[in-house]
Design a protein that fits this description.
One of its GO terms (molecular function) is nucleotidyltransferase activity. By secondary structure, the chain is of the alpha+beta class. Helices cover 51% and strands 12% of the residues. The protein has a seven-stranded mixed β-sheet with strand order 3-4-5-2-1-10-11. A two-stranded antiparallel sheet has the order 6-9. The protein has a two-stranded antiparallel sheet with strand order 7-8. The protein is elongated.
């Protein structure tokens, strides 16, 4: 443990109280992972905590939590407690302070999070958390139904831990998640999307399929549920739409907007499914519907405007054909946006790898050539957007153009310069407009 954590714990012990490092920091230490923070629990009451330390903040005083400011760090300290009845499947209506570390650990979510430690007494593990940690098992403390009725977010947390740690969810716990899946409707959008994002950015994002299997996904992401229910009878694909989307996301770097774009890029397929003359499936114009569904999802879960913009543009253009020639690449960069053009190429690569790769593999060479030419365009500072034009709106206004005429003229000139870079001179462009 860090020296500061030891000092805090020892201060309590020297003054006649019990105190331990508890929860995630103990779990992560046993996994040889450096904890992101250290939570401390103690038999001392909040008033005692504030008396023993000079600098404190009442973080959650109603639940017995006080933050200690020491040596430039902030450490949350919570009095041992038993929780009363929960309201809205989130917060206990009241808490009762206790002197027992075992009673405090008994109210926690999973056995691997219900362990405590200090250097005086050593390891406190009344519910077998260390054994479950060794067996890579997520198991509720006590009755799973009780734990999930207390806080429905624990069901998402179980799947998230499984994704982040590559653990299995114990059978009784998993069955309880399936039984209580509808409780997630009581959770705020912010809490739900935070857990979904962590799963999506993990090394085992396929655990999102677990949310579908236990029935949670239909309450938080019904659009993806329809994708898992939509097979693709077409030679280019070997997976249903949902599995294809998850597989594509696995091939992308851990940027949330990028993985969400992969997860949502084909959401329009269930609603646009048809038949080709040969009997195979068709999904014409699915990107347009995917954009609409993704926009609704982003609004529902309060994505930032920046992330939403990137996600919607990537989905809109994910199926756009880009020929490996500079003029076509420049046009695509202008339409998609220079900020995410390489993201689009990477999304196309991931999309390709998640299809019938025996047939789609040759596309990767095309994407490599597009990226090479794009980097060359950037290095040579060739024009591909309005800001690169040798003329601007004021120049065209001086010629007598106004309103929409200016925009149309600039667009015309840009496409001309993309095809004829040597003409990007003010005199030449103004002459063309005249």
């Amino acid at each position: 443990m860090p020296n500061t954590v030891n000092r805090i714990i020892n201060t309590f012990i020297k003054n006649g109280f019990f105190a331990y490092a508890v929860g995630g920091c103990v779990r992560d230490s046993l996994l040889n992972t450096v904890p992101s923070d250290w939570d401390i629990c103690t038999s001392a009451l909040p008033k005692d905590i504030k008396r023993l330390f000079q600098k404190t903040v009442d973080t959650g005083i109603q639940h017995g939590t006080v933050s200690i400011l020491l040596d430039g760090g902030i450490f949350e300290v919570t009095t041992f407690r038993c929780d009363g009845d929960y309201k809205d499947h989130r917060w206990p209506e009241h808490v009762t302070f206790t002197k027992s570390i075992t009673e405090d650990l008994a109210r926690r979510d999973f056995t691997v999070n219900a362990m405590a430690y200090n250097e005086t007494e050593g390891f406190i593990d009344p519910f077998g958390g260390a054994k479950d940690l060794k067996n890579k098992c997520i198991k509720c403390v006590g009755d799973p139904d009780t734990r999930f009725l207390e806080d429905a977010l624990r069901m998402l947390r179980a799947v998230r831990f499984a994704a982040q740690k590559d653990f299995k969810i114990e059978e009784k716990t998993l069955a309880s998640i399936q039984k209580n899946a509808a409780l997630v409707q009581n959770l705020s959008a912010e809490r739900v999307i935070a857990e979904i994002t962590k799963i999506l950015l993990s090394d085992h994002l396929e655990q999102i399929k677990t949310l579908y299997d236990v029935g949670i996904l239909r309450f938080i992401m019904p659009e993806l549920c329809k994708c898992f229910d939509t097979p693709q009878n077409i030679k280019w694909h070997i997976y249903d739409v949902g599995t294809h989307s998850l597989t594509a996301a696995q091939f992308l770097e851990k940027k949330s907007y990028l993985r969400f774009s992969a997860l949502m890029h084909d959401w329009g397929k269930p609603g646009t499914k048809g038949k080709n003359p040969d009997g195979s499936d068709s999904f014409r114009n699915h990107a347009k519907l995917s954009v609409a569904l993704a926009e609704d999802f982003c609004n529902r879960y309060k994505f930032s405007n920046a992330d939403k913009s990137k996600i919607l543009r990537l989905i809109k253009f994910h199926d756009r054909q880009i020929l490996p020639e500079k003029k076509y690449i420049k046009r695509a960069v202008n339409d998609v946006g220079d900020d995410i053009f390489l993201d689009l190429i990477n999304l196309k690569r991931a999309d390709c790898k998640a299809q019938n790769f025996a047939l789609t593999a040759p596309r990767l060479e095309t994407y490599d050539e597009i990226e090479r030419l794009y980097r060359q365009i950037k290095e040579d500072k060739e024009s591909f957007s309005l800001k690169h034009l040798a003329v601007n709106g004021n120049d065209l206004k001086a010629l007598g153009l106004e309103g929409k005429q200016i925009g149309k003229a600039l667009s015309f000139l840009l496409y001309h310069v993309i095809d004829h870079p040597e003409d990007n001179q003010k005199e030449i462009l103004l002459k063309k407009i005249k």
